[in-house]
Write the structure tokens for this entry.
Amino acid sequence: MHDLKEESDNLLDIFSELKKNNKEDMIYIFMSTSKITFAGGGISAVCASEKNIKFINAKVFFQTIGPDKVNQMRHALFLKDKAGVFAHMAKHRKILKPKFDAVINGLDKNFGGTNLAKWNNPNGGYFISLFVPDSCAKRTIKLAADLGVALTQAGSTFPYKKDPNDNNIRIAPTFPSVSDLTLAVDALSVCAKLAYIEKLTSGS
């Protein structure tokens, strides 16, 4: 749903694929409208096999008095149908794409042709994944924090936040303004280069 470009990625339906092989009990698919309508005020759903839905219902029966039907109705009236959801997300795209472009352009400017870093240019979602030299992510984030640039914790994209190479930084450009992002990427880039220099001079 969170496309940054008008052409959506055609993602494989993993649940349908597992069902073809009688493996549908392996997964649960969760979704929420919290980043579509209101953070913390959206509605959620789960897709699972019949067996797993029965398991969930047995647990939820004792954990909640029931769904928020008023909020469900609000969403149904506001979003209406699939076309309504896509029309709403197009408004999100107008806000978010310039912010992602600011980060990508900044990384291109600061690291282009250097082989010091690589990053993805996502077609959707809420994050950009930056890879700095090995053993430099934590130090880069610390240096950036000292300058007032807040980043997600090193290792955030890994289980238990343990990045074996300490080289991945997840950038979330959705909140700051484009002008703030432009400055922040420049600062982040300087910090990544400084962290690498420190690594080289320390002999580690």
The mean pLDDT is 92. Residues 96 and 174 are 6 Å apart (CA to CA). The chain has two domains: 14-79, 94-202.
